[in-house]
Protein backbone atom coordinates (compact mmCIF):
# COMPACT_ATOMS: atom_id res chain seq x y z
CA UNK A 1 0.00 0.00 0.00
CA UNK A 2 1.30 3.42 -0.95
CA UNK A 3 1.41 6.29 1.49
CA UNK A 4 0.77 9.98 1.00
CA UNK A 5 3.93 12.14 0.81
CA UNK A 6 2.17 14.94 2.68
CA UNK A 7 0.47 13.26 5.63
CA UNK A 8 1.68 9.64 5.39
CA UNK A 9 -1.90 8.47 5.18
CA UNK A 10 -2.96 5.45 3.15
CA UNK A 11 -3.60 5.93 -0.54
CA UNK A 12 -6.32 4.05 -2.37
CA UNK A 13 -7.03 3.80 -6.07
CA UNK A 14 -10.39 5.21 -7.02
CA UNK A 15 -12.28 6.27 -10.09
CA UNK A 16 -13.11 9.94 -9.96
CA UNK A 17 -14.33 12.74 -12.18
CA UNK A 18 -11.95 15.60 -12.71
CA UNK A 19 -12.40 18.98 -14.37
CA UNK A 20 -9.28 20.36 -15.97
CA UNK A 21 -8.88 23.85 -17.39
CA UNK A 22 -6.47 24.24 -20.25
CA UNK A 23 -6.17 27.17 -22.70
CA UNK A 24 -9.44 28.68 -21.44
CA UNK A 25 -11.32 25.49 -22.20
CA UNK A 26 -12.66 23.03 -19.73
CA UNK A 27 -12.07 19.36 -20.14
CA UNK A 28 -14.05 16.91 -18.08
CA UNK A 29 -12.45 13.59 -17.36
CA UNK A 30 -14.94 11.07 -16.06
CA UNK A 31 -14.23 7.81 -14.34
CA UNK A 32 -10.49 8.22 -14.51
CA UNK A 33 -8.27 6.20 -12.27
CA UNK A 34 -6.63 8.26 -9.56
CA UNK A 35 -4.93 7.62 -6.30
CA UNK A 36 -6.61 9.37 -3.40
CA UNK A 37 -5.27 9.84 0.08
CA UNK A 38 -7.80 8.62 2.60
CA UNK A 39 -6.53 11.01 5.22
CA UNK A 40 -6.07 14.44 3.58
CA UNK A 41 -7.93 13.82 0.31
CA UNK A 42 -4.97 14.72 -1.91
CA UNK A 43 -5.38 13.29 -5.41
CA UNK A 44 -2.53 11.77 -7.40
CA UNK A 45 -2.83 10.85 -11.03
CA UNK A 46 -0.97 7.75 -11.95
CA UNK A 47 -0.65 8.45 -15.67
ZN1 LIG B 1 -2.48 12.67 2.65
Name a few traits of the molecule:
0% helix, 3 strands, 60% strand, single chain, 47 residues, binds zinc ion, 3-stranded antiparallel β-sheet
- Write down the overall geometry: elongated
SSE sequence, one letter per element: EEE
Oligomer: single chain
Bound molecules: zinc ion
Summarize the structure.
By secondary structure, the chain is mainly beta.
Structure overview:
With 47 residues, this protein is mostly beta strands. It contains no helices and three strands. It has strands at residues 11-22, 25-37, 43-45. Strands 1-2-3 form a three-stranded antiparallel sheet, with no helix packed on it. The chain is elongated and about 35 Å long. The structure holds zinc ion. Zinc ion is lined by residues 4, 6-7, 9, 37, 39-40, 42. Zinc ion binds next to loops.
Give the secondary structure arrangement, pairings included.
Elements: E1 11-22, E2 25-37, E3 43-45
This protein binds zinc ion (ZN).
